[in-house]
Fold each of these.
Amino acid sequence: MLVEQSGITRRELFTLTAAAVAAAALKPQQVAAQSAFELPELGYAYDALEPHIDARTMEIHHSKHHAGYTTKLNAALAGHEELQALSIEQLLADLARLPSEIQTAVRNNGGGYANHNLFWTVIAPGGSGAEYISPTLQAALVAAFGNHDQFVAEFSTAAATLFGSGWAWLVSDGAGGLSVQATSNQDTPLMVGQTPILGLDVWEHAYYLNYQNRRSDYIAAFFQIIHWGEVSRRYAASMG
Ligand code: MN
């Protein structure tokens, strides 16, 4: 009745329905192609980490640098639907399996995508204080480094002495063990089967506006805003 009242014939209705079905059938492919990886929202405002990390640095770092890695990662994966179905951790864990022409792009931009995803979550306004380290992570830190201050010293040295651009990490081996590591560019311990649970970006884009050449001051500030609750959660999740 409604169809007749609105003047749409059965033939037109069929055509409209067929078009709707075709559109619905196309939709999953379009979604997969357009949003393989998405830039995550920060859990806080750009100015929330001041004075340790300034708002302008956070805005550029997130909305330009991280967004750029995301866009370029998706561009590298365009046309590779089977790869778009994988997690970023799966992609980075076995780069040699990828088509050779996109290995470098996925290593650089996929690494950048994953590394910043982690970074935004392990820092938080005001940090959470070392008292929020879980008992199991605390025990593992003591086993690996002797005490908390020694861990801070080793991590800070790794971050300060890394030549050029890269990251300092606290890494879980999946069997309880922890180590401090450093990687160049956007490389990540995920590439060698290990799980970073805390990371510090020491590319100049992460600190230069506020700290210029004073990387050691930036490293010290980082320890004021570590979200130890999230690091503890990641440590627990890293155990296979
Ligand atoms: Mn960065």
Amino acid sequence: MKIENFINAKQHSQKHPVEDINYFINNLNSFSQEEITQWLKAVKANGLDDDETSALTLAMANSGNILSWKELEPTIDKHSTGGIGDKITLLFVPLIAAYGINIPKLSGRSLGSTGGTIDKLESIPGFKTNLSINEIKEQIKKIGLAVCSASSDLAPADKKLYAIRDVTGTIDSMPLIASSIMSKKIATGTQNIILDVKAGSGAFMKTIEDAKLLANKMVGIGRNLNKNIKAVITEMNEPLGYKIGNSLEIEEVLEVLSGEKVEDLIQIVICLAREAIHLVYGSSAKTDTELKDLLLNGAALKKFESMIKAQGGNLNIGLPQAKCIEVVKSEQEGYIQKIDADNIGEAVYSLGAGRREVTENIDHSVGIVLLKKHGDKIIRNEPLLEIHAKSKEDIEKIKRKLLSGITFGQKEPSKLKLVHEII
Ligand code: URA
């Protein structure tokens, strides 16, 4: 196959045969960045159909190792498209393990303002995220769960394509996003996959319609490749939970697993766990109430603590704390109508909790603690939120903008719908 013909075919909206897609991905290193970019731009403009998207996914998955968990079945993998304060994975993994399903979870680091699970876990002193596959298997055999960083051999062709997409304005393409995410899920090798596709200002997909399109594409790819797969579309216009920032989110995970009833986190994790169990067993032996018990009564906490211990973490040393903490009081009164997730994400990013390049360092200690949430009533001068920062200047830099993203009104707003659809 000639690369010029391959590019030309997509520029003219022609369908690629599977062999051409395989050839392109297998020989990715022999093409110039310019050639790859031309193809990516043609895909962004003209799309890929379902067969092409599945073929691209499989080719990228096959560019590295495909893991196997045969001796550890049933196993499940979870993916979130990312959001602000999204610590759901860190609740879901111990809950599912407490239920009795093995979960080898390979996660990423933060990019942009949404946090990465690996960064959050690395705020625990000593916690190791770079386990070998054999170490992960040994750990799963003993305790049923592990959360580790994905090795560079997991879908390396996606890594290369993503790096080029990132600098050529070609991230924003449904088939490229769907195949990129799914190539890593296929390479991770579990038979069961549950996807949390977030919709809203703090998410990759800004509207429920786009989130549905992406979810349908990813579920379609998974089913085409014989996976048990479901997607849940969840709300991401407001931050999840009260704490946003790496070590702050670990703190909140420990609070919930110790029985603290943080309604939005609990509702979403229970929905995902219920759907995941259905996926694995066809039905669930437990009701939502029983799953909630498992989450809050200490069973999931035990699993989480055993994972921290197995991966070398030590909670007794204490989580990183920010040097400066300022309580910000409300200048208005009434009911909170909206706390814009994107605005909070930007604030937390500028405090140093996120990164734009994978090589940048982050500050685990900084972030925001909301003291009030959607629908809460507040009076003037009542504490509204805390800013955890490394300096007074950092606090002053974000304070005004942070407050401008919170809307007040005199009428109590209706409750947020947190789960939009299950696909
Ligand atoms: N996340 C991914 O892994 N890939 C994309 O293309 C977008 C988000």
